[in-house]
Write a structure and sequence with these properties.
InterPro entries: Flavodoxin_dom (IPR026816), Protoporphyrinogen_IX_DH (IPR052200). By secondary structure, this protein is an alpha/beta fold. The chain has six helices and eight strands. Bound molecules: flavin mononucleotide (FMN). Flavin mononucleotide binds next to α1, β3, β5, β7 and α5.
Length: about 180
């Protein structure tokens, strides 16, 4: 049995749901999973875990500052143990080049180049946004490729949960296989 740490940051909750899904898959495979909100109190590091899966959403073109700080602080551990990164954005739904640019910027800012990276589509949660955010997001969604929804009376969840499951299972398979010689 392996112990997997899943540090993440979220603003509207979608990355937390994805982190929880990753943890569910890890547990379903008989391993232990600790989901860690990096904005939370009493934050522990990833030391002592057999694997680490880091997640962050994108806002205004950047991954969460708390995740960037966490990764900079724990980079040596992330480079020592099997680790992976997942990025959550709307660009991942229809604008893959933009989603890749976000990840490239993250790698440059943190100096961490994870062996495994996934870009998951996030959500447009119009019913949860305040007035200004709803207007902003409707305008952005209307002008983006990928056919993003603009009906602000409802939410749109674009995350493909099967892809999250596959990403997690691939990570676990790599862990079981051990380091490549
Ligand atoms: C204010 C705001 C700004 C956003 N900016 C971007 C952006 O620059 N690029 C992008 O691809 N997605 C952007 N998004 C979409 C988020 O990445 C998406 O809603 C994601 O699901 C948020 O994850 P979270 O709920 O874990 O914070 C933005 C969303 C909001 C609400």
């Amino acid at each position: 049995m392996s112990r997997i740490c899943i540090p993440y940051a979220t603003s509207e909750g979608q990355t937390a749901r994805i982190a929880a899904h990753v943890a569910d898959v890890v547990r379903a495979h008989g391993h232990e999973a600790d989901v860690v909100d990096v904005k939370g109190p009493r934050l522990g590091g990833p030391d002592g875990y057999d694997g680490v899966v880091v997640g962050s959403s994108i806002h205004l073109g950047h991954h969460d500052k708390h995740v960037r700080d966490y990764v900079r602080q724990h980079r040596q551990t992330l480079e020592r143990v099997p680790s992976a990164f997942f990025s959550v954005s709307l660009a991942a739904h229809g604008d893959e080049q933009e989603a890749e640019r976000y990840v490239e910027a993250f790698e440059q800012e943190t100096g961490w180049r994870p062996a495994t990276v996934a870009m998951f589509s996030g959500a447009l949660l119009y019913t949860q946004y305040g007035f200004l955010k709803r207007r902003l997001m409707k305008r952005i969604a209307g002008g983006k490729p990928g056919g993003l929804g603009t009906d602000v009376s409802r939410d749109y969840v674009y995350t493909e949960w099967d892809a999250v499951t596959r990403f997690t299972e691939d990570f676990l398979a790599g862990l079981a296989a051990g380091p490549a010689s």
